[in-house]
Design goal:
197 residues, Bifunctional nuclease domain, 2 domains, 8 strands
Length: 197
Amino acid sequence: MKKVQLEVIGISSKLKTNPDYNLVLKEVNGNRNVSINLNYFDTQLLYDAFHDSNNNIYDVIPELINKTGYELQEIVLEKNENTKTFESSLLCSKIDKMINRSTYDDSAYNIELNTNIIDAVVLGIRTGKKIIADDEILKNEFKQDTYDENPEDRDILTDDKLEMCSTVFLETMLQKAIDTENYEQAAIIRDELNKRS
Protein backbone atom coordinates (compact mmCIF):
# COMPACT_ATOMS: atom_id res chain seq x y z
CA MET A 1 0.00 0.00 0.00
CA LYS A 2 1.41 3.37 -1.02
CA LYS A 3 0.53 5.73 1.83
CA VAL A 4 -0.65 9.28 1.25
CA GLN A 5 -1.06 11.74 4.11
CA LEU A 6 -4.31 13.73 4.19
CA GLU A 7 -5.33 16.87 6.01
CA VAL A 8 -8.81 18.00 6.95
CA ILE A 9 -9.74 20.99 4.80
CA GLY A 10 -13.24 21.57 6.11
CA ILE A 11 -16.88 20.72 5.77
CA SER A 12 -18.82 21.66 2.66
CA SER A 13 -22.52 21.70 1.98
CA LYS A 14 -24.82 22.26 -0.94
CA LEU A 15 -28.05 22.90 0.90
CA LYS A 16 -30.08 23.55 -2.24
CA THR A 17 -29.38 20.10 -3.67
CA ASN A 18 -28.53 18.03 -0.59
CA PRO A 19 -29.14 18.74 3.11
CA ASP A 20 -26.09 16.70 4.13
CA TYR A 21 -22.54 17.89 4.60
CA ASN A 22 -19.31 16.47 3.24
CA LEU A 23 -16.01 16.17 5.04
CA VAL A 24 -13.27 17.22 2.63
CA LEU A 25 -9.77 15.81 3.04
CA LYS A 26 -6.88 17.03 0.88
CA GLU A 27 -3.67 15.29 -0.01
CA VAL A 28 -0.73 16.90 1.82
CA ASN A 29 1.71 18.28 -0.77
CA GLY A 30 -0.74 17.47 -3.54
CA ASN A 31 -3.95 18.69 -5.13
CA ARG A 32 -6.28 15.71 -4.82
CA ASN A 33 -9.34 15.85 -2.55
CA VAL A 34 -11.61 13.15 -1.24
CA SER A 35 -15.09 13.89 0.05
CA ILE A 36 -16.95 11.80 2.65
CA ASN A 37 -20.69 12.22 3.12
CA LEU A 38 -21.73 13.14 6.67
CA ASN A 39 -25.03 13.01 8.48
CA TYR A 40 -26.09 15.65 11.00
CA PHE A 41 -24.56 13.83 14.00
CA ASP A 42 -21.21 13.30 12.25
CA THR A 43 -21.15 16.99 11.35
CA GLN A 44 -21.78 17.94 14.99
CA LEU A 45 -18.95 15.65 16.17
CA LEU A 46 -16.54 17.31 13.76
CA TYR A 47 -17.71 20.77 14.74
CA ASP A 48 -17.07 19.91 18.40
CA ALA A 49 -13.63 18.53 17.55
CA PHE A 50 -12.66 21.88 16.00
CA HIS A 51 -14.12 24.05 18.75
CA ASP A 52 -14.52 22.18 22.04
CA SER A 53 -11.43 22.50 24.19
CA ASN A 54 -12.97 20.61 27.11
CA ASN A 55 -11.87 17.07 27.77
CA ASN A 56 -14.06 14.59 25.98
CA ILE A 57 -13.88 10.93 24.99
CA TYR A 58 -11.52 11.74 22.13
CA ASP A 59 -8.99 13.09 24.61
CA VAL A 60 -9.35 10.01 26.81
CA ILE A 61 -8.90 7.34 24.10
CA PRO A 62 -5.18 8.04 23.44
CA GLU A 63 -4.61 7.96 27.20
CA LEU A 64 -6.31 4.58 27.45
CA ILE A 65 -4.22 3.24 24.57
CA ASN A 66 -1.06 4.45 26.35
CA LYS A 67 -2.12 2.73 29.59
CA THR A 68 -2.15 -0.61 27.72
CA GLY A 69 1.48 -0.08 26.68
CA TYR A 70 0.74 1.17 23.17
CA GLU A 71 0.87 4.56 21.49
CA LEU A 72 -1.44 5.90 18.79
CA GLN A 73 0.68 6.49 15.67
CA GLU A 74 -1.66 7.29 12.79
CA ILE A 75 -5.20 7.13 11.49
CA VAL A 76 -5.64 4.85 8.46
CA LEU A 77 -8.54 5.37 6.03
CA GLU A 78 -9.57 2.55 3.72
CA LYS A 79 -12.39 1.83 1.31
CA ASN A 80 -14.27 -1.44 1.59
CA GLU A 81 -14.68 -2.59 -2.01
CA ASN A 82 -17.62 -4.87 -1.11
CA THR A 83 -19.75 -2.23 0.59
CA LYS A 84 -18.24 0.80 -1.20
CA THR A 85 -17.98 2.61 2.14
CA PHE A 86 -15.05 4.20 3.92
CA GLU A 87 -13.61 2.44 6.94
CA SER A 88 -10.83 3.38 9.28
CA SER A 89 -8.49 2.04 11.89
CA LEU A 90 -6.12 3.39 14.50
CA LEU A 91 -2.56 2.14 14.04
CA CYS A 92 -0.91 1.74 17.44
CA SER A 93 2.59 0.56 18.30
CA LYS A 94 3.97 -1.06 21.43
CA ILE A 95 5.97 1.29 23.65
CA ASP A 96 9.35 -0.24 24.52
CA LYS A 97 9.96 0.94 28.07
CA MET A 98 13.56 -0.35 28.02
CA ILE A 99 14.59 2.19 25.39
CA ASN A 100 11.73 4.61 26.07
CA ARG A 101 10.54 4.79 22.49
CA SER A 102 7.84 3.38 20.28
CA THR A 103 8.37 0.24 18.21
CA TYR A 104 6.47 1.79 15.30
CA ASP A 105 8.98 0.69 12.67
CA ASP A 106 8.65 -2.98 13.66
CA SER A 107 5.26 -4.15 12.38
CA ALA A 108 5.33 -7.21 14.66
CA TYR A 109 4.59 -4.83 17.54
CA ASN A 110 1.80 -2.88 15.83
CA ILE A 111 -1.93 -3.35 16.33
CA GLU A 112 -4.86 -1.91 14.41
CA LEU A 113 -8.09 -0.93 16.13
CA ASN A 114 -11.09 -0.66 13.79
CA THR A 115 -13.28 2.38 14.32
CA ASN A 116 -15.90 4.56 12.70
CA ILE A 117 -14.35 6.91 10.14
CA ILE A 118 -15.68 10.06 11.79
CA ASP A 119 -14.38 8.98 15.19
CA ALA A 120 -10.99 8.30 13.61
CA VAL A 121 -10.85 11.71 11.90
CA VAL A 122 -11.90 13.46 15.12
CA LEU A 123 -9.10 11.61 16.95
CA GLY A 124 -6.70 12.77 14.27
CA ILE A 125 -7.83 16.37 14.72
CA ARG A 126 -7.69 16.24 18.54
CA THR A 127 -4.32 14.47 18.77
CA GLY A 128 -2.58 15.91 15.72
CA LYS A 129 -1.75 12.40 14.47
CA LYS A 130 -1.35 11.81 10.74
CA ILE A 131 -4.37 10.75 8.70
CA ILE A 132 -3.17 8.26 6.09
CA ALA A 133 -4.94 6.70 3.12
CA ASP A 134 -4.02 4.29 0.39
CA ASP A 135 -3.12 6.11 -2.82
CA GLU A 136 -5.73 3.97 -4.62
CA ILE A 137 -8.50 5.70 -2.65
CA LEU A 138 -7.40 9.07 -3.97
CA LYS A 139 -7.12 7.70 -7.50
CA ASN A 140 -10.67 6.32 -7.34
CA GLU A 141 -12.36 8.99 -5.20
CA PHE A 142 -10.39 11.98 -6.44
CA LYS A 143 -12.25 15.25 -6.78
CA GLN A 144 -10.26 18.05 -8.44
CA ASP A 145 -12.18 20.71 -6.55
CA THR A 146 -15.37 19.72 -4.79
CA TYR A 147 -16.38 23.36 -4.37
CA ASP A 148 -16.63 24.35 -8.03
CA GLU A 149 -19.07 21.78 -9.41
CA ASN A 150 -21.98 24.18 -9.79
CA PRO A 151 -21.78 27.61 -8.15
CA GLU A 152 -25.57 28.10 -8.29
CA ASP A 153 -26.06 25.07 -6.02
CA ARG A 154 -23.87 26.48 -3.25
CA ASP A 155 -25.18 28.62 -0.45
CA ILE A 156 -23.08 31.59 0.51
CA LEU A 157 -20.73 30.65 3.32
CA THR A 158 -22.26 31.69 6.62
CA ASP A 159 -20.46 32.38 9.89
CA ASP A 160 -21.31 28.97 11.37
CA LYS A 161 -19.99 27.20 8.26
CA LEU A 162 -16.85 29.34 8.18
CA GLU A 163 -15.95 28.39 11.74
CA MET A 164 -15.68 24.75 10.64
CA CYS A 165 -13.22 25.51 7.81
CA SER A 166 -9.46 25.52 8.05
CA THR A 167 -7.55 28.74 7.50
CA VAL A 168 -5.90 27.27 4.39
CA PHE A 169 -9.30 26.43 2.93
CA LEU A 170 -10.64 29.91 3.72
CA GLU A 171 -7.64 31.58 2.09
CA THR A 172 -8.25 29.50 -1.05
CA MET A 173 -11.96 30.36 -1.04
CA LEU A 174 -11.16 34.05 -0.53
CA GLN A 175 -8.94 34.07 -3.60
CA LYS A 176 -11.62 32.26 -5.64
CA ALA A 177 -14.27 34.73 -4.48
CA ILE A 178 -12.07 37.65 -5.54
CA ASP A 179 -11.21 36.01 -8.87
CA THR A 180 -14.90 35.48 -9.65
CA GLU A 181 -15.78 38.99 -8.41
CA ASN A 182 -18.01 37.60 -5.65
CA TYR A 183 -17.15 40.45 -3.32
CA GLU A 184 -19.96 39.77 -0.84
CA GLN A 185 -18.60 36.30 -0.11
CA ALA A 186 -15.02 37.62 -0.15
CA ALA A 187 -15.92 40.15 2.58
CA ILE A 188 -17.48 37.46 4.77
CA ILE A 189 -14.43 35.20 4.40
CA ARG A 190 -12.04 38.12 4.99
CA ASP A 191 -13.87 38.97 8.24
CA GLU A 192 -13.55 35.37 9.47
CA LEU A 193 -9.83 35.33 8.65
CA ASN A 194 -9.36 38.66 10.46
CA LYS A 195 -11.09 37.22 13.57
CA ARG A 196 -8.49 34.43 13.62
CA SER A 197 -5.42 36.66 13.42
